[in-house]
Write a structure and sequence with these properties.
The protein is built from three helices and eight strands. The chain has about 180 residues and is of the alpha+beta class. The strands form two sheets. Strands 4, 5, 6, 7 and 8 form a five-stranded antiparallel β-sheet that branches. Strands 1-2-3 form a three-stranded antiparallel β-sheet, with no helix packed on it. A hairpin with a 2-residue loop joins β1 and β2.
Amino acid sequence: MMTRTQNVTMGDTQLFEGTRAHKKRIYLPGKYIVIFGVFPALCLMAMVSFYWLDKTSYQPTVAFEQRENAKGQTQLYYPMSEVVVDLSPDLRGRTSYLKVVPSIAIDKDQKDKVAMALDEARPIIAERLSLFLRALSPDDFRSTEQLNYIKKEMTRRVNLVLGQEIATDVVLEQLVIQ
């Protein structure tokens, strides 16, 4: 039996002397303001800021170098990172290594059109050039005609990656065979 001073709790209700007294549920409008007002506003601001950042003017990660070519014309050069590959064995069976630093020559008029394309394709270009160079042997670098062929083939492969005739030449800044 219950006495008058005893309270018994059962779930959400309490029993007082044999009667039920219900707890009142308190609705807070603040949480609804946060859920339906502040949170969507923050999401909208985040989406607008990401859209705005995406649409800002594009700045290439590497600046073009402006030089005059052999014909006296001003040309832009897009420097690539160095490529180090192991060459296929020579006639005596020895393995050699090649270190080359290429630069891609483009026309001065095409700078704005190709800056973004070159930056996006940079890793693919480096891969294609290294795959091509890896198939060569040290004997392939002996004569000027062979070097001209290698440069033309590298230019062709760069243009294949870019999908159009952007590169006019590939200049070999450094060429070391060890």
